[in-house]
Amino acid sequence: MREDLLHFIWKYKKLPLEELYTSKNEEVSIVDVGLHNMLSGPDFFNAKIEIGGQLWAGTVEIHVKSSDWYAHHHEVDDNYNNVILHVVWEDDIAVFSNNNTEIPTLVLKDYISPSILAAYQKLFHNKGNGFINCEKAIAQIETFVFDHWIERLYFERLEQKSLQVMGLLEQSKNDWEAIFFALLAKSFGLKINGDIFFRIGKELDFSIIRKIQNNPLQLEALLLGKAGLLSEEIQGDEYLELLKKEYHYIGLKFNILEEPFQKAEFFKLRPHNFPTIRLSQLTAVYGKHQNLFRKIINASHIEEFYTIFNVSANAYWENHYTFGKLSKKSPKRLTKRFIDLLVINTILPLKLSYAKYLGQEENDQILRIITGIKAESNHIISKFHGLQITVPSAKESQGILELYNNYCTKNKCLQCAVGNQLMNRKP
User: Fold this and answer.
1) What whole-number distance in Å separates Cα of residue 153 and Cα of residue 395?
2) In this structure, is residue 310 part of a structural domain?
3) If you average pLDDT over every residue of the chain, what do you get?
């Protein structure tokens, strides 16, 4: 027996609502099961329950065994002083409140239909290929239910990404342009260099960026220098020497000649994702746009973002990936797929955060943008495709990633709309 099943039974009243009795044979009438608490503290708040003819209002705590009350140290936690009913599967010990009276206990195993237990067992033992619990049944879920759930999960994922934005807001004294620069730098760094680029973007005084962004040579020198990419000695590379001079000049001018934060990595990266290329492209974005944050906030369609980020790295990088080594000529332009990632991971969380900051609602615009982006392609999305799940846009792929990472892999099936519908099916 698992506690999440007991939560499900109580929350959705999967028990007879008449002729319920406590372990002390007091009649129980459930007026309101209360609000499910997903955080610390009692499991259900604001419940209303009539016990022995007396109406009580308070909290409900649920355990597999009543002795779990002591195993979890609730007896010394004041948050549990207002528990009016202890709901358990097995009653193996008396539990007392802070005024030394025994808390009424409802023993669920005396009342639960075998069909509920069978549905639960089926849900958790239905892994055909060991991917997710419901893989044999997920394609049978009603389209409306599944689509609505995936949209909700997309916004759950977006909310999580926006938390970082709100954390930066206080640090930057509400400088949204500075926040956006740091987050955009992180996205340009991808997984390998994301943290390094983020630190550069966060710790550089953004007023310096504002002052030199009209001079792409200086801005590129500053970013490459802070990433530790100007330390090489390469004979005959004029562009490298020019960048070094500009970096030294900027360092003296703004008193920022300290050592680089940390050298950016090349290992495990494809050449088009080398830090040299990505930092030059980031430079090009800021060289092209003044007040980039405002343009991002005002953009409401994915095509506008493709236009804003339609930039290439400096001409030097057309036939270089690193300093001093010639390569086949190819413009290092930001691809639509890379811009999609910027929009998904940085711009839409920023839009959501800014709207909340202003007390506005941007969900419709966010949905319009995300549904205009192609779905991501990875092994998780491919697995869901194999289960006959349609993934038409990035809204669905992001929602499915949230579903898989935070529900499927954690066996939170009874907190999932899919699991709920499967459990509520008639046998």
Assistant:
1) 9
2) no
3) 94
